[in-house]
């Protein structure tokens, strides 16, 4: 039961970060969330990759 609660908090944290990342870059909220999950919630790494998407797109 505790594990579910902790997982829920992590998901909420990633969702908030994903919305912020999507607003500050030209990626969709879904792409931002996937980037954050890929980088284990590391916002700096996710933002760097998001900027690469923007440059390539």
From TrEMBL:
Instruction: State the residue spans of region: Disordered.
Output: 1-57
Q: Which domain of life is it from?
A: Bacteria
Bias regions of kind Basic and acidic residues — which residues? 9-20, 31-57
Stated name of the protein: DUF3606 domain-containing protein
């Amino acid at each position: 039961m505790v594990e579910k609660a902790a997982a829920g908090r992590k998901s909420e944290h990633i969702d908030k970060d994903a919305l912020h990342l999507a607003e500050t870059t030209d990626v969709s909220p879904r792409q931002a969330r996937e980037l954050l999950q890929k980088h284990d919630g590391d916002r700096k790494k996710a933002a760097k990759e998001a900027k690469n998407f923007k440059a390539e797109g």
